[in-house]
Model the fold of this input.
Amino acid sequence: MKKMILAVGAHADDVEMSMGGSILKYLDQGYELTYVLTTNNMSGEFAYLDENGKVCSRAIQPEDEIKVRQEEANKGAAMLGTTAIHLNFAQRHYTGKDGKKVKINFGTELPDFLTPGYPSMLTAHEDADAVKRLTEIILDCDPEVIITRGLADTNIEHICTALYVLKARQAAQKQGYDGALLMCRGTGRGFPDSYYHFDTFIDTSGLMPRKLDLIRCHASQKPLPEKLDLRDYVEGARCGVETVEPFIFGGIGTWRVGPFTTEILRNHLYCRENYRKMFL
Done:
């Protein structure tokens, strides 16, 4: 059986921050990785440390943002033994020439470097050709487990990435694909507490230093990863171990069970049996 993980993030740093420890654990056990980012990473600001070590940021033009963030993603992918695949769906906003944020709506003037007619991240899951492209990636790499963003999230590009993966996986299943799906537990604040519960996890105990090294690849967004509120230790305490990465269990194949899938199922059972103790 092919020991492959498919990680699909929306933005540069998504894979490393949300699933980096799980990937490291199973790369150590002989798995391979296919690393995919859905957006073109043209939005955001450039973070840096001033002379006092304080995190500051400045606006950056979208062409430069793409170059910096995709190079950082390539570096992170290389540390994980693979090459990043950039699908380059446009993000929902970018920094204009005047330094102000431009939101992409109907009638918005788009940057010259965007391909006319190519879907944005908000619409990729409704575009047949875009879904077909990811479907082909799934069928080609044939992963035991797909890990992607979650549906309960305050970032719409995370949600649309989850929808995109769900539709591509369904299309791949119709062509014989038989693998498991993990979706990242929601991020941000504002939802009811139950939206941040999870029903399986990967025990990443001992891997936090290496995970932080992965996140350091994304210095333009996370220059001080050790100060991030990643909650790996908090959620690990819920599960009786040092650290975990929490997930929503999105389904499993009918016959395909390897070491990664075995842990998903074992920890899914743990969450079901200990739900009240963990979350209530």
Summary: The chain has a mean pLDDT of 94. Residues 200 and 266 are 8 Å apart (CA to CA).
